[in-house]
Amino acid sequence: MNPIKRKSIVELTATDLNLPVDMIDDIVSHYYLTLQRKLSSADHPYIAVPRLGTFVVKKHQNFVNKIEKDEHITVHTYELIIKKRAEIQRLTKLQERMEQEQERREEVKLKKQIYKDGKSN
Length: 121
Hints:
Elements: H1 6-17, H2 21-40, E1 46-49, E2 53-56, H3 61-68, H4 75-120
Antiparallel strand pairs: 1-2
Helix pairs in contact: 1-2, 3-4
């Protein structure tokens, strides 16, 4: 499922409810900002919102690699690199948890299939 664009949601909702587009846009913007904050905290690998889509965490390794190649790095850029490295480390741990969860799900699926096969015999 692909996430629905904010602009589409705003227009459809404003039309359906006969409310000003600006008001709906403020509400939807706040909702998306809350989702973004939850994702950037790296506590969860994804957030599934019913009828809206699944929002997934993205890594920033390419960004860090690109700016590290520069010979003249400012203090601000160095601070940014340090922050991004810490974020990448959190996201790497998160990815490991995601992989463990996927393995657990596969095991459960296999156990269910074995149980179903044994029951049908």
